[in-house]
Hints:
Protein name: Terminase large subunit
InterPro entries: P-loop_NTPase
Distance between the termini: 64 Å
CATH superfamily of the largest domain: P-loop containing nucleotide triphosphate hydrolases
Structural class: alpha/beta
CATH topology of the largest domain: Rossmann fold
Number of domains: 3
Region (Disordered): 159-178
Radius of gyration: 28 Å
CATH class of the largest domain: Alpha Beta
Amino acid sequence: xxxxxxxxxxxxxxxxxxxxxxxxxxxxxxxxxxxxxxxxxxxxxxxxxxxxxxxxxxxxxxxxxxxxxxxxxxxxxxxxxxxxxxxxxxxxxxxxxxxxxxxxxxxxxxxxxxxxxxxxxxxxxxxxxxxxxxxxxxxxxxxxxxxxxxxxxxxxxxxxxxxxxxxxxxxxxxxxxxxxxxxxxxxxxxxxxxxxxxxxxxxxxxxxxxxxxxxxxxxxxxxxxxxxxxxxxxxxxxxxxxxxxxxxxxxxxxxxxxxxxxxxxxxxxxxxxxxxxxxxxxxxxxxxxxxxxxxxxxxxxxxxxxxxxxxxxxxxxxxxxxxxxxxxxxxxxxxxxxxxxxxxxxxxxxxxxxxxxxxxxxxxxxxxxxxxxxxxxxxxxxxxxxxxxxxxxxxxxxxxxxxxxxxxxxxxxxxxxxxxxxxxxxxxxxxxxxxxxxxxxxxxxxxxxxxxxxxxxxxxxxxxxxxxxxxxxxxxxxxxxxxxxxxxxxxxxxxxxxxxxxxxxxxxxxxxxxxxxxxx
Length: 520
C-alpha cells in the first residue's frame, strides 16, 4: 500500500501507547451504528486500529508522542465512524495517562471534565458525525453504564454532571475562549477561505492548546485537497509540524498516473491500494464509474477515490493537447538549439531542456530528480550537471541559454565565461511579470501547435503535474503544494527553453553559424 504520510511502520509496543486499553474499552462499550451488524460490539479494521495505537502513543513521561493527528483517506473508507468512536472515547473512555502499573504498562484514566467539540464551518456538516455517535451509543452498554442523555444535537450526562459532545460551527471570533478537551474536525478539505475555514481552524486550535498540558488535542479527516483552494487540509499537510513528525499524518494513496486513468487493470489496482482494508468499498463499481463516466473530471476521481493531491481541476496543461504535440525524435548533433535550465540543490530536482530553433521541438538534455525515498542529505550531483551542460554545447550549436540563478549563480557565471556571455543568460523565474508572459506563450504554443516534443515520459509527467497559481500579473505554474513529491522542474525548464528560442531568433541567430576560437 502507498503510505505517503508519516505513520510509522508496524505498531507501538503495549508500554508505548494507551491505544490497546482504549480499543478494548471501545469494543466493550460502544456498538456498530448501522449495517447488518448494527447493535453488535464495535470493531475497528486493522488500519483503524493502527491509527488509534499511534495516535495514542506516549513518551516515557506519559505525554503524547503526537500533539494532533490527521487521517487522509479515499471517500467512503470509513473516516467518519472512526472519528465518532474517538469522540466517544474522549468523552467517557479511558484516554489520558494516569500512571505506570507495576508491570510497566501505562494505565489510562477518564477526562475529569470532558468537552468534546465537533468542528465544522456549518452545523449541517457536523450532523453525519453526530448521527454516527448517537448510533454507537443508543442502546449500548455505555448508555446505561455512564448515564447518558442522547439528543439530536448533543450527548451529555443525565445527572447534570458537566461535560458534553456538541457541534461547534460559527464564525471564529465568537468561539474564542472555549476550553475543549478534544476537537474533531471532519472533511477539512472543504474548510476554505470562502467559508471562513482557515480562520475557524486557527481559533479551534488555539482553544485546545490552552489545555495541552492536560492532554487536550485535535484530530482531522480529509480527502485529498485541491491545491488551489488553500484549504485547512492543505495548511496541515504543508505544516512543519507534520514534516517534523510532531503531528501524526496517516495517508494511503492509489499509485496511478493520470495518463493511465482509462486502464482498467491499473485503475482497479490503484483503488485497492487507496481503500486498503475497507472491505465494504465497491472496487468493481468504482472501477466501472471511473472508466466509463466521462461527466466527472479525472481530477475529481484522483482526489476522492485515489486520494491523490496531484491532479487538480486547475491543471495547467490539457493532456490531449500536449499529446497532440508529440513528434518523432529526429534532432541531430550540430543542429541549432536553445536551452532552458531550472536548478535546485536539495529539495527539488534540476532539469536541462533543449529546443530546436527552426521548429520548436523540445527534448530533454538532463534531469536530476530527488528519489522518492532519498535520505535527508541527498543533493543534486553538480558535477553531473556540469558535464551535461558541456555535452550540450559540444554536441549542438547552442544559440541561447536561459538559466534560473538561485543556487547556481557561480556555475552560470562560469558557463557564460566558457561559452560567451552573449549565449548564456540568467532568467529569474521568481519575477512574476516576465514569468507570467513566458508561461502564457508556452501554453498558447501548445494550443495552436507551434511547439512539439519528442514524447519523453518524464517531461510529459512534469508538464501535466503543473497547476496554475493566479497572481496579480496573471497565471504562473507551480507544484500542487510546496511539499509535493510530484515535480515540475522539466516543465519550468521547457518554458525557459521556449523563451530562449524566441530571443535567439529575435536576435537573428537562426541562420548564423557559430564560430569559435579554437586556438591561436
